[in-house]
Amino acid sequence: MAHVSAAERRPQLIKAAIDFMTREGVAAGSTRAIAAELGVAQATVHYTFGTKEGLYLAVMEQLTQDLVAQVEGAAPADGGFEETASALAVALWRTVREQPESHQLLTELTMFALRSPALSGALEAHYRGVTEVTARLITEAAERTGQPLAQPTDAIARFFLAGFDGLTLQHLALPDEEAERTCLQAFVSAVVAMAGGRLELVPVPAN
């Protein structure tokens, strides 16, 4: 059998872990089960990631990278700050509607990490990275549109992520398309107002 390097095996194991835990949940995601999902020895998982926690962190990072990649190209080339904020929020919300399993798995992994001392530092670093990406998108939109920001971008990013996490959890637990559209519109308006825009409802385009 041809040797497969750890660099080649890593994305295969991450995908296997995502597929398995999406079906069975994080609690069932032992290294033995994930190795069986791919058809490799359990030792391969430990060799590639060191620990189960290392694999879980890699899964979180991969899911987040995939979602961010879908959002980054959504900003209009010549729209105003409000339009840009709305477009980014709608693009992210589309991933919730179309890939709820990815957001559910991220939520489960976050709760698991909060109770795992081995993952607490990694979880903090992961969320700091997500906040930095969000702050960068806000900064780029403000600079491109000439929008002065009334609050630090880090604070705006944290507000955005906190609100979006809440909307996502509501969608997973109690989906209601009409109510969600109203809440999303109000949420975007609140983000724009915090950034220094007008305190009024910002139109949110249909999905």
Automatic annotation (TrEMBL):
Q: Start and end of every HTH tetR-type domain? A: 7-67
Q: Which InterPro entries match?
A: Homeodomain-like_sf, HTH-type_TetR-like_transc_reg, HTH_TetR, Tet_transcr_reg_TetR-rel_C_sf, TetR_C_31
Pfam families, alphabetically?
TetR_C_31, TetR_N
Protein name (database record):
TetR/AcrR family transcriptional regulator
Q: Which source organism does the UniProt entry give?
A: Streptomyces phaeochromogenes
Query: What ranges are recorded for DNA binding?
Result: 30-49
Keyword Transport included in the entry's annotation: no
What keywords sit in the KW lines? Answer: DNA-binding
